[in-house]
Design brief:
Number of helices: 12
Number of domains: 3
Strand order of the largest sheet: 6-5-10-9-8
Largest sheet: 5 strands, antiparallel
Mean pLDDT: 83
């Protein structure tokens, strides 16, 4: 439930402020809480019994003339696709129960729109796929300390409207950094909650992950930004097509070039069951064969970066070689 993009209208807030009150400070109607509670939406005035000052988020912005807030988590098929907040001036009436019910009823439809938007073909070929990983360093208190040129370039490619005043105020980066500060010592960065996949303006995919650093006198954290590997993207694309967990597993095995028999053995099911799942996958993705599935699910969504993977720094990315580049009807292999 980390930010992967943002659009603000008629109000601005810094990325560090938003991340702090969503991921660090416990507060009323945080988006993650609304999603997990099943309520989906909530009005701040309603949920504080009319006393907005019970919210730490409200207290921090009260001097700016901001009043009540209506929040909604956007969920489709049990998957969290986005969030929205609506703010009123302090002199306007509070949101009502009807407002909450209405936005809650719209949640799944809006979420489904966000889901299908992930499948839109990106025609732009511009982007920064020839750049390596970028790093942003944060002090113990969460203040950004330094940023690499590559990180500045990648942040400029992320979709944030309006753009952050400075790259280090990116809501996307600040969210990952806030989660990283909450990690227990020794947490593995790539397996932690401080990890996000982000699509850029040109259609490329980035992997962001935060980690706590050792060896210094302060408890610093870092956010690493790098082009995402195929194995990072495939599950997200599968979710966007509405595939079930089992269908997603079989799709990933298809991307690895596994035979039906091999997939059946890996999943402890019969080959007939695998074939039934493949039929369901083909129906949902609109393809008719495994080679089409690989091209549609993998190449179509990864092609903006595919050409330059071989030139990427070793140790950071999947390495494309003559043995695993796609050709004909063969399936690309994933590292």
């Amino acid at each position: 439930m980390l930010f992967t993009g943002s659009v603000n209208r008629n109000i601005e807030c810094s990325g560090s402020w938003l991340a702090n009150y969503e991921y660090v400070v416990d507060d009323v109607n945080q988006w993650a809480h609304l999603a997990r509670s099943g309520r989906v939406a909530g009005g701040l005035s309603i949920d504080t019994g009319g006393d907005l000052t019970r919210s730490a988020r409200y207290r921090s912005r009260e001097a700016y003339g901001v009043g009540d807030e209506l929040r909604v988590s956007l969920i489709a098929g049990g998957i969290y696709w986005g969030a929205a907040a609506f703010l009123r001036d302090a002199d306007q009436p509070a949101f009502t129960d009807e407002h909450v019910r209405t936005i809650a009823a719209l949640s799944s439809s809006i979420a489904d729109g966000l889901r299908t938007a992930e499948l839109a073909r990106v025609t732009s070929t511009s982007g920064g796929s020839d750049h390596g990983p970028g790093v942003v360093l944060f002090e113990a208190g969460g203040e950004a300390e330094s940023i690499s040129p590559a990180a500045e370039m990648w942040i400029a490619e992320m979709i944030e409207i309006p753009a952050p005043t400075t790259p280090i105020e990116s809501k996307i980066v600040q969210a990952v950094a806030a989660q990283a500060r909450m990690l227990p010592p020794g947490a593995e960065p790539l397996d932690s909650k401080a990890r996000s996949r982000v699509r850029t303006r040109s259609g490329e995919w980035l992997l962001l992950y935060g980690t706590r650093l050792r060896g210094g006198t302060d408890d610093r954290t870092a956010v690493v930004i790098q082009p995402a590997t195929p194995s990072e993207i495939a599950p997200l694309v599968a979710f966007a097509y509405g595939l079930s967990e089992r269908e997603t597993q079989i799709t990933l095995l298809c991307l690895q070039g596994r035979s039906t028999k091999n997939m059946a053995q890996a999943l402890s099911v019969s080959p007939y069951t695998v074939q039934d799942h493949l039929k369901g996958i083909f129906d949902k993705t609109g393809v008719h064969s495994r080679s089409e599935l690989v091209g549609h699910v993998f190449l179509e969504h990864y092609v903006p970066r595919w050409e330059s993977v071989a030139a990427a720094p070793p140790g950071w990315l999947v390495k494309a070689t003559a043995d695993n580049k796609p050709h004909g009807d063969s399936s690309p292999m994933l590292s």
